[in-house]
Amino acid sequence: MRVLAVASECFPLVKTGGLADVVGALPGALAPQGIAVTTLIPGYPAVLAAIERPRPVLSLPELFGGPARLLRATHAGLDLLLLDAPHLFARAGNPYLAPDGAAWADNGLRFAALSAAAAMVATGAAKGLAFEAVHAHDWQAGLVGAYLRHVHASALPLVFTIHNLAFQGQYPASLFPALGLPPAAFGIEGVEYFGQVGFLKAGLWFADRITTVSPTYAMEIRTAAGGMGLDGLLRGRGGAVSGILNGIDDAEWNPATDAHLAARFDARDPAPRALNKAELQARFGLAAEPAAPLFLFVGRLAWQKGVDLVLDALPALLGEGGQLAILGTGEAALEARCRDAAAAHHGRVGTVIGFDEALARLGYGGADAVLVPSRFEPCGLAQLCALRYGALPVVARVGGLADTVIDANEAALAAGSGTGVQFAPATAEALTAAILRTTGLYRDAPAWAQVQRNALAGDVSWRRSAARYAALLHGISHG
After folding, report:
1. Per-residue pLDDT tens for 237-266?
2. Which of 128, 317, 319, 360 lies at a 20 to 30 A Cα distance from 74?
3. pLDDT at 101
4. Confidence of residue 479 (pLDDT cuts 50, 70, 90)
5. Does residue 322 share a domain with residue 384?
6. What pLDDT, on the 0 to 100 scale, is given for residue 92?
7. Mean pLDDT, residues 70-98 taken together
8. Exposure letters 282-296 (e unless 16+ CB within 10 A, then b)
9. The pLDDT value given to residue 308
10. Same domain, 308 and 166
């Protein structure tokens, strides 16, 4: 079965978050299931620079203000189509943000072009390319269904995956005339959303099947509290909505082979983690104390991710003799708070502002525990990486965090099944209690070792989830 995947980013070519990891890993996971995926992404400068010998497969003399072409290439085992449209994508840096940090003013047009090109190639515009289904990811590919149904009159099966409902791609109605869609598409049964053009809403409306990245998040987004205005539509889609848990590429994320670690290890012998811990302490300017429980926060410094809760709970963490390493970038006020915490607690708190995957990997391989106190979390990858590398995740009981971490409560400890610590609600008080539970577990060396073994032995790969995606894709392609 041949499937066209459409997304705005794909690891290892371009990444701003977990979307890229999923888009990059899923084709390889689906291949053993008999599904061949071709992935269409924008031809950003960094992407085009990394590609060797791309082959033009379709020329588009005019695409929303300028010429474009589709290039085909392979890279890192991926079969790729690149939308080379310099007037839309020839911009260095972040794919979505201008140098001043604001979203590009023409993002609506840029990603409408991605969707329009996807619909063209999906319906046979490029010679030699034929597909049996389309898999569109997040709002940037939200208009694929509108172009398929309204421009090409195509019933080609469409799966739409929500990676984060908070990002919806809403633009003024004045954008609509430029999209090349017929007037009938601008309505409640189309792209219109509260008088605006809603990219994510359109994706949900036109898809044959809607997936999101964990079963719990699939339930949460169908409630008023978690639906962010789209819960009614999602409830109305009924059985078309499902949650399929994300995984990680366990060959790429492997502590036994990871060159970014100071010392490699595996589940049979996690002792070398101590060397990674020492290196991590040195890299973050923390005191060289092997016995101190070392907590790590890695991710976006944003309200959603709850780093403010970590800082509010800091007195308890430090009071237990703990250390904290913070790695991430995001909101200026939160970045400042993280820097201030490091300055105020020299040797106990270390902050590195920026995106550094090598340092993140060292963090997972050396920290004792990883804090993931998200207020909402569709799936989350930090806790999966933590489990894979034997750092116990301390997670809010939301979304995919609830689905992937087994709370090491008394019953779980007695049964030998815990893999981390859960807490609820997502407040500083509840996180404080979870930190105290974690440090108590840390001081119980046999119990800690058992939970760590459980974490390392767990399966966080794509294998089970790929089988679910394959069943869904095969199912819709056969009606």
Report:
1. 999 999 999 999 999 899 999 999 999 999
2. 360
3. 87
4. low
5. yes
6. 87
7. 96
8. ebbebeebeebbbbb
9. 98
10. no
What domain range includes position 337? 273-457
| Nearest alpha-carbon partner for 309 in 425, 431, 160, 448 | 431
Could you tell me which residues are annotated as the binding site? 15
194 and 307 share a domain?
no
**For residue 356, what pLDDT band results from cuts at 50, 70 and 90?**
very high
Closest CA to 137 of 279, 3, 307: 3
- What's the half-sphere exposure (Cβ side, CA atoms, 13 Å) at 454? 23
Whole-number Å distance between alpha carbons of 295 and 278: 13
- Report the C-alpha gap between 112 and 52 in whole angstroms: 27
Beta carbons of 179 and 112 less than 8 angstroms apart: yes
What does the alpha-carbon distance between residue 310 and residue 390 come to, in Å, rounded to a whole number? 21
Dihedral angle over CA of 384, 390, 392, 393, nearest 10: -10
Dihedral over Cα of 313, 383, 235, 164: its sign: positive
- State the DSSP string of 217-274: HHHHTTSTTTSTT-HHHHHHTGGGEEE------TTTS-TTT-TTSSS--BTTB-TTHH
CA dist., res. 329 & res. 331, Å (int): 7
Tell me, yes or no, whether 208 and 329 share the same domain.
no
User: Virtual CA dihedral for 247, 253, 406, 215, nearest 10 degrees?
Assistant: -10
Largest distance between two CA atoms of the chain? 67
Number of separate domains in the chain? 2
The rounded distance, in Å, linking the Cα atoms of 130 and 154 is: 13
User: What element of type H or E holds 162?
Assistant: strand 158-162
- For 385-444, the pLDDT digits (tens) are 999 999 999 999 999 999 999 999 999 999 999 999 999 999 999 999 999 999 999 999
360 and 227 assigned to the same domain:
no
Query: Which pair of structure tokens corresponds to residue 416?
Result: 């030998």
pTM of the model: 0.94
Query: Helices 382-389 & 445-457, crossing angle to 10 degrees?
Result: 110
Which pair of structure tokens corresponds to residue 100? Answer: 């001043």
Residues annotated in a binding site for ADP-alpha-D-glucose? 15
Which candidate, 386, 346, 362, places its Cα nearest to that of 275? 362
Compute, in degrees rounded to 10, the torsion defined by CA atoms 7, 26, 361, 449: 140
Closest CA to 210 of 222, 196, 224, 223: 222
Is it the case that residue 380 has pLDDT exceeding 70?
Answer: yes
pLDDT higher than threshold 80 for residue 477: no
Choice between 478 and 427, residue whose per-residue pLDDT is larger: 427
Query: Encoding tokens for residue 186?
Result: 């601008």
